[in-house]
Design a protein that fits this description.
single chain; mainly alpha; 5 helices
Length: 134
């Protein structure tokens, strides 16, 4: 409902909602600061040029290494997200993100490397490999 339909204004309405409304609003704001799911993190830009000297076998090895790295950082990010949700519920704060547990930048970096390797594989017609992000 917009302010024009509420003669007392949105602030008065919020104040009348009482403690429960304010607590809910605070919890929503805190949840907005929580670590993202690894699946929702976009890849960082990484140039495929760094892989131009790799042959198909080397690219496949690098792809396998990146798969392993993605599994590890995705798990760390999921743990950070779980810690944030628990922290918000118990303390009202996203404690994992506040303590450095959020590794979204690492997830984005590995995803970017995966994209770059995939691009290099495509340019060299290596075929047979495709990423599914975790």
């Amino acid at each position: 409902m917009s302010a024009e339909y509420c003669p007392t204004g949105p602030l008065t309405k919020l104040m009348n909602a009482g403690f429960l409304g304010i607590a809910s609003l605070a919890a929503l704001m805190a949840l907005a600061g929580c670590a993202k799911k690894p699946e929702s993190i976009a890849p960082a830009y990484v140039s495929h040029m760094q892989y131009q000297a790799f042959n198909c076998a080397q690219l496949a090895e690098e792809a396998a290494r990146l798969d392993s790295a993605m599994t590890q950082v995705s798990e760390a990010q999921r743990n950070a997200r779980s810690g944030d949700v628990a922290g918000v519920i118990l303390l009202g704060l996203p404690v994992s993100s506040m303590s450095g547990g959020n590794v979204a930048d690492q997830v984005a970096a590995v995803k970017g490397q995966q994209v770059a390797v995939q691009q290099s594989m495509n340019l060299k017609n290596c075929g047979g490999y495709s990423y599914t992000y975790q």
